[in-house]
Amino acid sequence: MQYTTTYQSPLGKILLAADEIGITGLWFEDQKYFAWKLDSNHEEKEISVLKETKRWLDIYFSRKEPDFIPPLHIIGTEFQKDVWKILRTIPYGKTMTYGQIADIIAKERGLKKMSSQAVGGAVGHNSISLIIPCHRVVGTNGSLTGYAGGIDKKISLLKLEGAFKNSFYIPKHSTTP
After folding, report:
1. Where does the secretion signal sit in this chain (predicted)?
2. Distance (Å, rounded) from C-alpha 105 to C-alpha 102?
């Protein structure tokens, strides 16, 4: 059974969803793929993991990096989960490109190349935005491409984290210079 509650952020209303395992969704109202993977049979009830997630959001929107992650229940394909795992390694205030993520996945799978577009599709279907920071993924040379919540929100989130004054994050296991 999934449970839902709402959170009023500085960028608009957010729907939170969770089950007994952890957070299953965090969506800005009216975003693309809103409530994707939300059970049609869910109950509006603020269980403890949802309260913990609201506390995480309070800290995050106060321009601080939360020092904890609420329990997550990540629902998706293996490829999506691999991409979302990499997203969780992007530090607060940093960005990474779709190409860098594709390079990491290719290397982990023993492939010569992985499609940046496939990575983009997985990033776009991330149901637990902010906590799994898909807003930190940018196009080549830092171009601000797609965000299910809207480019305006992506810009606001990156500004909130100070990402525009910080350099790109180059993961240790990346082949990108």
Report:
1. none
2. 5
For residue 99, tell me if it sits in a domain.
yes
In a domain, 10, yes or no: yes
pLDDT digits (tens, 9 = 90+) for 13-60: 999 999 999 999 999 988 777 777 777 888 799 999 999 999 999 999
What CATH number has the domain bearing residue 57? 3.30.160.70
Residues 153/11, Cβ–Cβ less than 8 Å? yes
134 classed as catalytic: yes
Are residue 123 and residue 54 in the same domain, yes or no?
A: no
Please indicate, yes or no, if residue 112 is contained in any of the structural domains: yes
List 57, 72, 134, 138, catalytic entry = 134
Tell me how many domains the chain contains.
2
- β-partners of residue 25 are 17
Check whether 125 has a pLDDT greater than 50: yes
Secondary-structure breakdown of the chain: helix, strand, coil percentages, each rounded to the nearest 5: 35, 15, 50
Question: What is the distance between the alpha carbons of residues 86 and 171, in angstroms, rounded to a whole number?
Answer: 10
